[in-house]
Specification:
Number of strands of chain A: 38
Largest sheet of chain A: 8 strands, mixed
Oligomer: heterodimer
Helix content of chain A: 25-40%
Strand order of the largest sheet of chain A: 17-33-32-18-31-20-23-30
Number of strands of chain B: 2
Distance between the termini of chain B: 23 Å
Number of domains of chain B: 1
Shape of chain A: elongated
Number of helices of chain B: 8
Strand content of chain A: 25-35%
Distance between the termini of chain A: 121 Å
Strand content of chain B: under 5%
Radius of gyration of chain A: 44 Å
Number of helices of chain A: 22
Shape of chain B: elongated
Largest sheet of chain B: 2 strands, antiparallel
Strand order of the largest sheet of chain B: 1-2
């Protein structure tokens, strides 16, 4: 007995500790619910109905506290803890009927402590609706999370029983997972008409709404699953409806509606005076896509139909966005056009008239004419309130006139050593240019006409479009290893990333695919084989911030890449099995098996059949080496996209030191080498950390159009899809695009350049005397050149302005002639700048080419000179006048510069000077400074020697020195010496320019 | 000037005009090259588009579809030819100004207005002919390369040789026509020059 005492005491204590629990279970804190389940139509009890009790309201977050059945009389009794809210759901399905027999009945109760609660559940006749297929929404490529509501077609309200709405989906009244029902099932009332409303919240990519829009937006999209006369089912009946069909049907009507909406906007824009040929053409394309989609829908090809609708939808969104922007741009641009026209008008009047009054009158007249033309040709000016248009025009004119009057007053700088700064002569240069243009009126007008034609054609016959949509491009001329398609979601090419940006551990260069994509592809009727591939995210191969971080280690050897494959599929697609040189290839049923390269095998000293230990992210995996592949053979493998199937690693491309201890590293991605890569079956790969589904190769049934399916998948799912066809590899993707038309405008541009060159060259030839006069009064070559460039510039500015207006005239003419020129109208006033750029570029390139080709004034061509050999007489030196004048105050500095330049060549081998002597002579009529020197060139092979005297001579009445070189030697030697001295003078000119500029 | 006097009438044969025109082109070779380049560019563009249109039609017949040269491109051809006319006019005007004294001397020696007119027109025809041939050659190569790389070289070999030959005739005629139209005014101006004024003129 004594021995049993401790056990007895322990039992008593245990019993005492259970008392509170028993009190809790059996005491007043509980409530008894007595329920009866009846058939609503007959009032008969429903035996064996299932009873489900959830704590709180019905929903995914509720906790199930009871799950049982009613007895054969349809009664049940359950005890619930008081103080909480409960939802009791009763439902029943006769297994002999194909569908659900009753609509579940639900009641919500508040369990107050003590007593009983009697409830009667009436079950209404029900049936089943199975949803097949998937929801395809034209607005997005993302899969929606739908909510299905059973709707009464008469009232349009959601059908309710006992206050509970018949809604199915996550977080809703009837989450099928509690009822242990298929997620595709909707329980519907029998004997009454109904329809199903589908509401989907989806995140729409910004670019799918407008090409320029970057953010994402969540929108609610709804459609009905319905048929004529609505659904009417019998008790226990089950029907299947194709969600794809109904969602595509909805998409079809939505796209049609949007297309007609866009059609109305186009008509509106046309009425407003916009040229909408491109927009009309795009609408025609949209309509033909819709028509195609309709035909495919009628044939039951819902996916193909949907692909057309997606394409039409993205086109519609782009078009709608552009049409809206067109309107806004046109309104805004009027305020920029007015000053531009004022500038052109005043420039034109300044060119043609000299007298101030005439200039002002002409400027006003030109401006008025330009404004009238704008009003007639530019739609934005008519859309704007007329008083606002007039006010903006007046203000612009006043401001631009003010600038024309005031600007010359500010263009004045101080003189330096008698040299006039360039900005002081801007106004005179333009004045001279204007007169010259007037003097050669006909030629100037002809050049102006050519510029006007050029600019107007640039405005009206070129077109630049941006958008978002499907792009199908050929990426390789050679097909991949098999004919098929490959799916992946590459991030925008991250081929180079700066180290601080790309973060510590590694970068995704692909967005992992969801596993559901595999199932989705397998379900396509045209698909024969699906081969998913897993790979790791790239790791750095170099030491980054003091740490070396490969993906993992095998026996101390770093591993950067692991590929997980379906062996049989890859054998068919990539012929991977043919690279095995030892052991065997992987089998689909293999687990914990691995293939390694020959090089890795040698490094690790492993044999086939041995195990290796992979250490990765703190985990250790033991894998059996079943085979060894040939390194070269594996490296040469190409996937269906034409690229290597090897995973990527990050390498250091460039290192730029910024400060001590901190470098900016430019990184690049490159395929891992085979000795750093392991190949495992996908089941093994899925156990390894950092492995993701990166790509799926798909082989299609024979005769299927690969490009067409690539397009469909890209449009429907938003993937990047490569199609490996016999003609090469194509890539289909949804992306932003830029379309430019009118590159051949470069040809008229070139002709205009040639025209300007001809005119300018002739002008230079005709005006050589004038140029000499300019030179003699101290205007330097660059200033003379600027006179010619100013002439070209004036033509460019006026031609640009008038050409821009004429360009709009062409749009009007196209409209009136109903000519369909496929160009997008240049609405934005910023195109005025482009017009100016085109015109100025043409005239200035022409002008500069002519100036460069001419030896009359161009300073850089001072070296291109020849001595007159006819003047050569034996024993007489050449006397060469050099093209420079030296001011009195510059003399000492100049002498020093020349002497230093000559002395610097004393030790030179190719070109050297010797016996340098400086001299000075003061005469009655002149002051003379001299430098005598000998010059030798040509080395020992063909030496030339000259004896020279460099003379600076100033007449007493003048204040500048002229410079002469007297060179004694053969003509070739004198020519060479002359060139040498001219180079020194050119350097002096540059130095002098810098000094002047620094003041 | 090789002119012959026949019963008091001065004659100026086409051969003389051609020889003189050729001499003038040689003498002002740089400017002539620029003028020819302008004609060449315009004609090359036109030839390229015309040939490409032919290639596209062949391709469309063989492969289906309706590949065509877009209409705006023909607009640009018109623009190029218009600019080309202006450029030739300008160039010829410059030639007239430069040769004022020469024209004056010719007239003093008995040259008639029509002789001067003929001289300038012949010069422009020489330029146009060279520009037309060169332009066609460049256009032919450009269109073959453009089509070959975009739709395949096989289409090029399917084109009947008559098509480019007819086009060659057309473009040469077109360039001569354009050049003649462009030279009309400068030539007329030169022809109507008063010899006294012309001899007094100084550049």
């Amino acid at each position: 007995m004594h021995k049993r005492r401790p056990f007895f005491l322990l039992s008593v204590l245990l019993a005492l500790s259970l008392i509170p629990s028993l009190y809790y279970v059996l005491g007043d804190e509980d409530i008894t619910v007595i329920g009866v389940v009846k058939e609503s139509r007959t009032g008969n009890p429903v035996p064996n109905a299932r009873v489900l009790v959830l704590m709180g309201p019905w929903g995914s977050y509720s906790r199930m506290v009871y799950h049982g059945r009613a007895d054969s009389n349809g009664s049940f009794t359950i005890r619930l803890q008081a103080g909480s809210d409960y939802t009791i759901c009763v439902y029943y399905d006769d297994p002999l009927t194909p569908g659900f027999d009753y609509v579940p009945s639900m009641k919500r109760i508040q369990a107050k402590p003590g007593g009983e609660l009697n409830l009667t559940f009436e079950l209404y006749d029900g049936a089943s609706l199975f949803l097949d297929g998937e929801i395809l929404l034209v607005e997005t490529t993302k899969s929606p999370k739908p909510l299905f509501s059973v709707i009464n077609p008469e009232s349009g309200e959601v059908v309710k029983y006992d206050g509970y709405a018949l809604k199915f989906g996550e977080l809703l009244e009837f989450p099928n997972k509690y009822l242990e029902l298929s997620p595709d099932l909707i329980i519907v009332p029998a004997g009454v008409p109904f329809l199903i409303k589908v509401d989907s919240k989806v995140e729409v990519k910004g670019q799918e709404r407008a090409a320029w829009y970057q953010g994402n937006k969540t929108i609610l999209l709804s459609f009905f699953i319905d048929k004529p006369g609505h659904f009417l089912l019998e008790k226990g009946e089950a029907i299947h409806v194709d969600l794809t069909k109904f969602s595509v049907r909805n998409g079809l009507s939505a796209v049609k509606e949007r297309a007609s909406e866009v059609g109305l906007i186009i008509k509106e824009r046309e009425k407003e005076g916009f040229y909408v040929a491109v927009e009309m053409q795009r609408l025609t394309r949209i309509n033909s896509l819709i028509l195609e989609a309709e035909n495919l829908f009628d044939q039951g090809a819902y996916e193909s139909s949907f692909a057309r609708l997606r394409e039409a939808y993205t086109e519609i969104m782009n078009l709608k966005d552009w049409l809206n922007r067109m309107y806004v741009e046109a309104l805004k641009s009027v305020f920029l056009l007015a000053p531009f026209l004022a500038f052109t008008a005043i420039s034109a009047s300044s060119l043609y008239f000299e007298e101030e009054k005439l200039k002002i009158c002409a400027a006003i007249a030109f401006y008025a004419f330009f404004l009238l033309a704008t009003y007639y040709l530019y739609p934005g000016s008519r859309m704007l309130d007329s008083s606002l248009f007039i006010n903006a025009s007046l203000i612009s004119f006043i401001i631009i006139s003010g600038l024309f009057v005031l600007l010359p007053k500010f263009l004045k700088g101080r003189e330096f050593r008698g040299r006039v700064p360039l900005r002081n002569i801007i106004v005179p240069i333009f004045s001279i240019a204007k007169r010259n243009l007037r003097r050669r009126k006909l030629r100037s007008v002809l050049t102006l006409i050519s510029v006007v034609i050029l600019v107007s054609s640039f405005i009206s016959l070129t077109s630049f479009t941006t958008g978002y949509g499907l792009i199908l491009s050929k990426v390789s001329e050679h097909p991949g290893p098999s004919l098929g398609i490959m799916v992946r979601t590459l991030k925008s090419p991250v081929m180079e990333a700066r180290a601080p940006v790309s973060g510590g551990k590694g970068v995704f260069w692909f967005t992992p695919l969801e596993n559901s994509s595999i199932e989705w592809l397998k379900a396509r009727p045209y698909v024969r084989l699906v081969a998913p591939k897993y790979e790791n995210t790239p790791h750095r191969q170099y030491e980054y911030r003091g740490s070396y971080n490969p993906l993992g280690y095998v026996e101390g050897h770093p591993i950067f890449g692991i590929i997980g494959i379906v062996p049989s599929a890859e054998a068919e697609i990539l012929s991977l099995n043919e690279t095995i040189v030892e052991g065997r290839y992987l089998r689909d049923e293999d687990e914990n098996s691995v293939l390694i390269s020959e090089k890795l095998k040698e490094k690790l000293n492993l044999t086939v059949g041995e195990n290796l230990t992979l250490q990765i992210s703190g985990k250790r995996l033991t894998l059996e080496v079943v085979g060894v592949f040939d390194d070269r053979g594996f490296e040469n493998l190409r996937d269906l996209d034409g690229g290597s199937p090897l995973p990527m690693k990050i390498v250091e491309v460039r290192r730029t030191p910024v400060e001590e201890g901190f470098d900016i590293i430019t990184e690049g991605l490159t395929p891992c080498s085979t000795s750093e890569t392991l190949v495992t079956p996908w089941k093994t790969a899925s156990k390894i950390p950092e492995m993701h589904l990166s790509r799926i190769d798909v082989l299609l049934e024979e005769g299927e159009d690969l490009k067409e399916h690539a397009r469909i998948i890209a449009l429907n799912k938003g993937f990047r899809v490569w199609a490996s066809t016999e003609e090469g590899v194509y890539l289909a993707r949804l992306a932003s695009y830029f379309e430019g038309k009118g590159l051949p405008v470069a040809i008229p541009w070139l002709i205009v350049v040639l025209n300007v060159v001809i005119t300018m060259l002739n002008s230079l030839y005709e005006r050589r005397r004038e140029i000499l006069i300019y030179s003699s009064i101290g205007i330097n070559p660059s200033q003379i050149a600027s006179v010619f460039l100013a002439e070209a510039g004036v033509i460019g500015i006026i031609g640009g302005g008038i050409g821009y207006l004429l360009g709009f005239g062409w749009y009007r003419a196209f409209s009136l002639m109903a000519a369909s020129i496929q160009v997008r109208q240049k609405i934005s006033a910023l195109w005025t700048l482009a017009a100016m750029a085109v015109s100025l570029a043409a005239v200035l390139v022409g002008g500069l080419t002519a100036l460069k080709g001419s030896v009359i004034i161009t300073p850089s061509l001072k070296r291109r000179w020849k001595i007159d050999t006819r003047a050569y007489k034996i024993a007489e030196p050449f006397k060469l006048t050099l093209p420079i004048w030296i001011a009195e105050e510059e003399l000492e500095e100049f002498m020093e510069f020349v002497l230093e330049a000559l002395r610097s060549k004393m030790d030179d081998y190719e070109e050297h000077t010797y016996v340098i002597r400086e001299g000075r002579e003061e005469r009655e009529d002149a002051s003379i400074r001299t430098i005598e020197f000998f010059y030798a060139s040509g080395g020992q092979m063909s030496p030339i020697h000259t004896r020279n005297k460099f003379i600076l001579r100033k007449e007493r009445k003048k204040n500048v020195y002229e410079v002469i070189l007297v060179s004694d030697g053969l003509p070739e030697a004198a020519q060479k010496t002359g060139s040498f001295v001219r180079r020194i003078l050119l350097e002096w000119n540059v130095k002098r320019g810098k000094l002047g500029g620094s003041r | 000037m090789n002119s012959k006097e026949e019963r008091g009438r001065i004659t100026f044969s086409l051969a003389d005009a051609l020889r003189l025109g050729y001499d003038n082109v040689k003498r002002r070779f740089n400017r002539a090259v620029l003028s020819i380049a302008a004609i060449t560019l315009g004609i090359a563009f036109f030839s390229t588009l015309s040939l490409m249109d032919n290639f596209f039609q062949l391709y469309s017949q063989a492969e289906g579809g309706s590949l065509r040269v877009e209409s705006y491109q023909y607009g640009l051809v018109l623009v190029s030819l218009a600019v080309c006319i202006v450029s030739i006019t300008n160039s010829m005007l410059i030639a007239v100004y430069e040769r004022y004294r020469e024209i004056g001397t010719m007239k003093c020696l008995g040259a008639l207005d029509q002789h001067v007119l003929k001289l300038f027109l012949v010069e422009s025809v020489i330029l146009a002919f060279l520009g037309g041939i060169l332009g066609f050659g460049i256009g032919l190569v450009a269109s073959i390369l453009a089509c070959g790389f975009s739709i395949g070289f096989y289409v090029v070999f399917e084109l009947s040789p008559a098509v480019p030959l007819v086009l060659l005739g057309k473009v040469v005629l077109l360039s001569i026509f354009l050049s003649t139209v462009a030279t009309m005014y400068p030539a007329y101006k030169a022809a109507k020059l008063d010899p006294v004024e012309a001899l007094r003129y100084e550049i």
